[in-house]
Amino acid sequence: MAFVLPFEKPIADLIGRVRELRAVAVLRGPEGLDDDGDDPIEAELKALEGRAKDLAKEIFADLTPWQKVQLSRHPARPYTLDYVSRLITDFTELAGDRRFAEDESLIAGLGRFEGRPVAVLGHQKGRGAKDNVRRNFGMPHPEGYRKALRIYELADRFRLPILTFIDTPGAYPGIGAEERGQSEAIGACLAAMARAGVPIIATIIGEGGSGGALALGVANEVFVLEYGTYSVITPEGCASILWKDGSKADRAAAQMRMTADELFGLGVVDGVVEEPAGGAHHDVDATADAIRATLRGSLDRLSSLTPHALADHRYARFRRLGTFVDSAV
Predict the structure, then answer these.
(1) Are 4 and 52 in contact (CB under 8 A)?
(2) Is the pLDDT assigned to residue 40 strictly greater than 70?
């Protein structure tokens, strides 16, 4: 792994050592077994794997909100297409908003989740400079959200459950995007999701920022990965507004209550999906399996509801947000 955050280096070193030993064990094959038929490397592998998990729990138990924000943005972190390839079979990507252009920062298409036909949408960041420019760093333009709107309406018409994967710093704030109606496009997505008569399940796989994330987040159930974040603005943007200093992002992150455990405690999300030791980027397959189990359970719960009941369910969910009890009364 080319990029390693300072606080995850000890874990990355241990995991790297485990992978090297695994490669050696595979190359040696049966010739490496001792007289009893046991592989001496296997014992060391298990000890190192256990140490990596223990070290990850120890280090990650004390992560600051800002460090969790950094993890949610990790360039090696799996993106929407990484999960689609593992969770969705027969996936067919659909492109274009039928009005202006194709936006590659937002993936949309149809496929099957464990045999069930579904519609899938998700933000997509790039790997490397050229790919990030092509994907616009995961920040959709209005045409990206109008593509999403087209899929929402298509899914509602054909009674397909909608699975969304959220991972964006926010909608693209450029002049061209504003001229083409960025806010209207996002608003149309919110309205379409609110009235859809099908189950909608959103999973925050990285960072979820502002209306750009909410356009994929008006769901019956919303889940967040253990080191995902969700907020109305980036910590840097918040710090720039409050203290006129974007370098105070760590202070803003602590006060915004944007990490998974805070979001769950506030009722903003319905569940937290546990990540492997060191984060999702250390074991994409295990993370995908955890998401699979979460989506399966959610679909099972929601499938019995009528179209009208599903819309009511979403309305009731969002009406509950922000409620509080005044202890002084």
Answers:
(1) no
(2) no
Model pLDDT for residues 172-192, shown as the tens digit of each residue? 999 999 999 999 999 999 999
Of 109, 200, 111, 104, nearest in space to 151 by CA: 109
pTM above 0.70, yes or no: yes
Nearest of 98, 155, 90 to residue 121 by alpha carbon: 155
3 state DSSP class of 134: helix
Structural tokens at position 303: 């499938």
User: How many CB atoms are located within 10 Å of the residue 58 CB?
Assistant: 11
Beta pairing partners, 223: 203, 271
Domain ranges of the chain: 6-62, 70-320
Going by C-alpha positions, the residue among 112, 121, 56, 61 that lies closest to residue 89 is 112
DSSP calls for 284-305:
HHHHHHHHHHHHHHHHHHHTTS
d(CA 170, CA 105): 11
Which pLDDT value is given to residue 232?
Answer: 93
Measure the CA–CA gap between 70 and 117, rounded to whole angstroms: 35
CATH class of 70-320: alpha beta
